Amino acid sequence: MQTTVAVADILERKDFIIRLAKSLIKYGAPSHRLEDAVDHAAKTLEINLQCIYLPNLMIVSFIDSETHTSETYLLKVPAGLDMYKCALVHQVQKLVTHSSMPFEEAIMKLDTINTEKDAYSRWIIVLAYAVAGFSTAPMFFKANWIDAMISFVMGDTVGLLVWLSEKVPSYAHICDIAMSALVAFVAEALRQHNVCTSAIKFAGIVMILPGFTITCSILELSSRHIISGSVRLFYAIVFSLLLGYGLTFGASLWSLFDHSTRGDESKFSAECPNVPLNPLWNILFVPFFAISLNIWLKAHPRQWLLATILSIVGYAVSYTSSVYGGVKTEVSSAVAAFAIGLCGNIYQRLTRQLTFQAVVCAVFFLVPGSIGLEGAMAWFTEDMSGGMNFALQMVVTAIAISVGLFTSALAIYPMGKTRSAQMTF
User: What PANTHER family does the record point to (predicted)?
Assistant: First the structure.
């Protein structure tokens, strides 16, 4: 009887670890920390295992040294971003590792979290796409009010198309190219009205730019997760090429209707014909973009304030160091990432609350997705040297961000965390 109870206890512990691993992947925990988090939970529960994480897949092997047997599980889970549920899962993991919650209750908690509805309806998320396009057009791409309003409509359209791709699997394969092509087609159609076409193109698809994915891949490579980091980096570069192809295709498609633009290479230019808004307006645009990102990340409204503050800090440091300090992009990005990570880690150490969501939101202000997209467009306009330079700058900026984040973690947690897993960048 005691043997039966002991076996059942071990099986429940293994079940908790498997559910925990699935939840961490599903809700967007830092990918370069996943293996350490699962290992830490296993050691706390006195389970011997080995695990390896690949994009959308984790291999977990439970090893029994007494019987010289092992069980291997392939956990195929699509990676997502749900910062509210990620914080709840981290809290459950923390209570278990601190022996404040039995793992039987923890399993029930994880099941409850998995069955909860999303924090926001689809229409609110679509509106977030529109607000992101409106706020980033003048803030990052030197647009005026008219360009910002057009970007609002384009962002809303992209949000609807993303929704459609989730409902129609066959459309999902060409969704990214179709969205970028549509945005470029409309932007070129409005060129005769003296709008900033480059701002509309980039701002319209700002929420699907691959900069954050590139940054995560560099973080994984820096953490010696070579396989997952290489796969993610290659995917992000190819994804930027797909978006670049879509923008180029949409612009060229308009030339079929407007013959005067045929052979006009200036249609790919990033120059804007109108005077951009005063940079002081960015004081308003930064919180708007931060809130739209929080909604897209499915963060709880209680998490918005810290994320907005860190976003303002990161943008202010990046803007002042690059504009007034005259430093290069890779330096300003590293300094801004360090400031974001430092503030987030200090707050987490003082309050014992997870700040990963706030740091993720702030890092989105620094991601080099638009640089990579310009490089992809340069390739398709037969500017090979320009394309290579932009692509290289994209990776260099991602490296700068990862250096800043790792340095901030080193400053606050020089020896890591002993009682719980370190769920930070």
Answer: PHEROMONE-REGULATED MEMBRANE PROTEIN 10
